[in-house]
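Page 47, continued from p. 46.
Same chain as before, 384 aa.
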Amino acid sequence: MREVAIIGIGQTPVEEQWDKSLREIAGDALMAAMNDAGRDRADGIFVGNMMSGILSHQENLGTLIADWVGLRGAEAFKIEAACGSGAGAVHMGVMAVASGYMDCVIAMGVEKMSEKPMPETTAALATAADADYEADEGVSFVGLNALIMQRYLYEYGWKHADFAPFSINAHANAIHNPNARLREPITQAEYAKARMICDPINLLDASPTGDGAAALVLVPLETLQPTGMKRIKIAGSAAATDSIAVHNRHEPLWLAAAFASAQKAYAQAGIKPADIDVFELHDAFSIMSALSLEACGFAERGQGPRLGLDGEIIPTGRIPIATRGGLKARGHPVGATGVYQIVEVVQQLRGEAGQTQVDGATTGMAQNIGGSGSNIITHILRLG
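Result:
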C-alpha cells in the first residue's frame, strides 16, 4: 500500500449562503483545494453529503460537481454516512490512492442546509437515526444527545456547568477563524443562562448548522518532489460502526465505534494518544466532546469534563481541541464537517492556524461521528 499525502486544502465560510447553489458552494471549495495543490486534473472525486436528495432534490452529486468544475470523465461518487459523510469520503479517497487505483483524488464534503425551513431540516437530520425505533417515535438528535447527557450527569456526578469550558474554548478559538459561523466569545454566565433546548442541553451546548463545503487533494506521498513545503501524510485512516439506535448499545455512555476506529488509526500510525498534538473532535453537542476524549484515550471514563475544567483543551493545553472553533462555533454543515476537521488539522501542521496555532504541532487527529455514535471515522495526520 502506498502512503498518501494531502497537497491541497480548500473551504468556504460556514453560513447561510442564500446566493449560491449546492454545486456552486462545492465548486468553490474544490477549486480552492486544486489551486492550493497546483493541480488542474484529478482521477476521482468522492463527495461526502447526507441530505442533498431531501433538501436540494439533487442526487448524483459526484457527477453534478465533476461537470460543474470541468472534470468530466473523472470517476465521481457521493458518499453518505450521516454526519460522518465527509470523513467517509476522505476514507474512500485514501483507499483509492493507497491501493494504486488512482493517483490524484479530490475528497470533499458539501451540505446546503438553508434550502428548507428548520422543521424540514430537523426531520431530514433524523433520517440518520433508526427510522423504525427512534425517528418514528419522534426522537430528534437533540433529544438523543439530551438522554445521553442526562444519564452521564447521573452516573458520574457532574453538573451541567462543568461542560461550559467545551463551548467557551470553541468560541474563543472561532474568533480567529474567518470561516467560522459564530465568531464571538461566550462566558460561563452566558452559558448558564442560555435557553434550554432539551434538558439538560441548552443553546450553547449545541452546534449551529449552515451551508458549507471543504475539500482535500490526495496523492501518493512517493510522487512528491522536495520543494521546501511541509508535506502532510495521512498516517492513519480507519472507521468502525456501532448499533444505529442508542438504546441497543451495551454501554450508551461509551462510544465503542470511536474507540475502535481510533485504536485502528493509532496502530496504523504506530503511535499512542500521548503523541497527538491537536485533536479535532466532533463536538456537535458538548456531551460528545467528553465522550470522544474518553473513547480516544485522553481521559478516563466519566472524566472527560475534567480536561476542560483544568484548561487542558485550549491551544496551549495538553490536548487542544476545536482549535478553529469546532462544530460548536465554526459550524456543522453536516456532510462537509469531517472534511473541515481535516482541513483544520492540516492548517495546524502547516503552521497556518494564526492565533490558535498549537506550537510545534507535528501530529494531529480528526474524528467524525455519524449519527449519535453509530458510524465513526478517525484520521491521523503527520508531517511527512
